[in-house]
Amino acid sequence: MIRFILHSKGADKAGNAPNGAVEKGKPGEKQNAEDRWLTGFECYGHAGYAQEGSDIVCAAVSILTITCANALETVAKVKPLVISKPGKMILKLPDGCGRDAQVILLTLRQGMRDLAREYSQYLVLNES
Q1: What is the pTM of this model?
Q2: Rounded CA gap, 114 and 108, in Å?
Q3: Of 74, 64, 59, whose CA–CA distance to 107 is shortest?
Q4: 56-74 and 99-118 are packed helices; what angle lies between their axes, rounded to 10 degrees?
Q5: d(CA 40, CA 121)
Q6: What percent of the chain has a predicted confidence (pLDDT) above 90?
Q7: Which of 50, 66, 106, 112 is a plausible cystine mate for 55, CB 3.0–4.6 Å?
């Protein structure tokens, strides 16, 4: 089973998003997962859907996470911290990222939600 953890932050007490972006909600107001500023992710494990080389769930997760990391660099012009080993990938955005980085991470989140809905016994999605 793959465990995917999406990290986020809320606005500060003044209502400012962590990286200076505009964020929904009022200062001090509790925010739901949809309103929080995405800051990175962790992905661990193997799906076990099929044999290595034929596992469509592992392939889908790999494509989404690697494309996200690459797009952050080439499209958003952001250099995230990336740790990648077999069965593990961690990505953390640096401070000061713009809206393009958020759109890329939001797209990743949507893809992971779709996968988790279809393959819930092989992929667990946590949003913190």
Answers
A1: 0.80
A2: 10
A3: 64
A4: 180
A5: 23
A6: 59
A7: 50
Strand order in the sheet with 123-127: 81-85, 88-92, 37-45, 2-9, 123-127
Runs of H (alpha helix) within the chain: 56-74, 99-118
Beta bridge partners of 41: 6, 91
CA atoms of 21 and 90, how far apart (whole Å): 23
- Residue with the bigger pLDDT between 92 and 2: it is 92
Indicate the SS3 state at residue 10: coil
Domains of the chain in sequence order:
2-127 (3.30.70.1490)
